[in-house]
Amino acid sequence: MNFWNQELSLLKAEGLHRELKRLESSQSPRVIIDNREVIMLASNNYLGLSTEQEIKEAVIRVIQKYGTGSGGSRLTTGNYDLHEQLEKELADFKNTEDALVFNTGYMANLGVLATVVGSEDVIISDKLNHASIIDGCRLSKAKFLVYKHGNLARLENILKRSSKYRRRLIVTDGVFSMDGDLAPLPEIVELAEKYQALVMVDDAHGTGVLGSKGAGTIEHFGLEGKIDIQIGTLSKALAAEGGFVAGSKDLIELLRNKARSFIYSTALAPATIAASLASLRYLQSHPELFKNLWRNVNLLKDGLEDLGYELLPSNSAIIPIMIGDREKTMELSKALLVEGVLASGIRPPTVAEGTSRIRVTVMASHSVTDIEEVLDIFARVGRELKLIR
Ligand SMILES: Cc1ncc(COP(=O)(O)O)c(C=O)c1O
To answer: Which residue spans adopt a coiled-coil conformation according to this UniProt entry (predicted)?
Structure first.
């Protein structure tokens, strides 16, 4: 019997089969797919830094000096001066004592959660937290309790009922990756103080997007010094790859010693670290990037709403267009691609049944003309598919 084929047939029958798209260009505002130029509206390269000349040149210089692979895990032979420099600058950027780089944001969440809590503890998690948080919770062996998305009354209820645990850790995305809204962090911090819980914030989509210097959701809310564990990725606004944790010196020292996804994996290549470092420096010296990003976000949101699309109330560079039905969502995504816009259709199991959506992301490097063209295409395709009038 062919087990794999049976499972694949099931996925196809349920309309849940996924296929890869092949890009033949950089993550620019306009990309090439199947020999055709389309406007990219699905990249987390929020500040457009992955094609910035100054950053590319910094990476090339590092390759000339250090070569390609890192050759070992950080604790054996793969720890470069560049890793340490990046960690120092990330800690400064996030206003924490120290930071530690992991190979992906996913691995950062796994490594941190499996280290900081165990079977005597409880993790209290927002329902819409990212999959890597959920997997980290499973790996940690801690009790795992979920509160309804952003619902502070439910969170407090759990806090009231969970005093028997050794440690209580509230974990939340800063910006929710499929909804684009922000966690109510000031209120979460207040509850954590009241019930002596720890707080962990995964700011993968806030870093480089929110706050006046782009440090993220915590800067946006003025909560520096109040969050015990901050997670970030280097793969989105920082235009490279990797993840990181920022926090106290002791937290970072503990992770360096115990986080298995840090210890047992080859270090990120010097060129990758150089890309993050150059991006981090670039974004701090180019505040106009944030201005362009928010201009584009607002232009697109206003335009889509004027056309009659239903948007979820997001506060970030993620704009979810609610469709509901999964087939209609994928049909819209396909039709947009044919007309020249790459915008991802998101369906179960990534989001709940009946809430399938087009997840649009905007970049600082989109021009006003790009956004206007996108709106024309959304108008045409939406009318053809009878999604708008
Ligand atoms: C909230 C959140 N956390 C973590 C990750 C994982 O980060 P990475 O892609 O660097 O593994 C992502 C997205 O990929 C995310 O959206």
So the answer is: none
Provide φ and ψ at 31, rounded to 5°: -120, 165
Residue 6 belongs to some domain of the structure: no
Residues 354 and 373 in one domain: yes
Q: What domain range includes position 171?
A: 53-284
Residue whose entry in the numeric block shows the structure tokens 């029958």 = 13
On whether both 315 and 332 belong to a single domain, the answer is yes
**345 lies in the same domain as 247:** no
Ligand 1 center from residue 107 Cα (angstroms): 9
Q: How far from the centroid of its chain's Cα atoms is residue 69's Cα?
A: 25
Residue 369 lies inside a defined structural domain of this protein: yes
Q: What percent of the chain has pLDDT over 70?
A: 100
Omega into 287 within 30° of 0, i.e. cis?
Answer: no
Instruction: Based on the residue annotation, tell me whether 291 is a catalytic residue of this protein.
Output: no
User: How confident is the model over 182-201, as pLDDT tens digits?
Assistant: 999 999 999 999 999 999 99
Expressed in angstroms and rounded, the spacing between residue 161 Cα and the centre of ligand 1 is 31
Catalytically annotated residue among 43, 50, 140, 177: 177
Please write the tens of the pLDDT for every residue from 86-123. 999 999 999 999 999 999 999 999 999 999 999 999 99
Q: Where are the alpha helices (DSSP H) in 68-143?
A: 81-94, 105-116, 131-140
Which of the residues in the chain have pLDDT under 50? none
Lining ligand 1 with CB less than 6 A are 104-106, 109, 130, 132, 173, 177, 202, 204-205, 233, 235, 243
**213 assigned to active site:** no
In a domain, 1, yes or no: no
pLDDT of amino acid 159: 98
Environment class of 373 (CB within 10 Å of its CB; exposed 0-12, middle 13-18, buried 19+): middle
The domain total for the chain is: 2
For residue 290, the model assigns a pLDDT of 96
Q: Whose CA is nearest to atom 16 of ligand 1?
A: 177
- Say what the pLDDT of residue 101 is: 98
* Cα 336 to ligand 1 centroid, rounded to whole Å: 25
> Are both 167 and 294 inside the same structural domain?
no
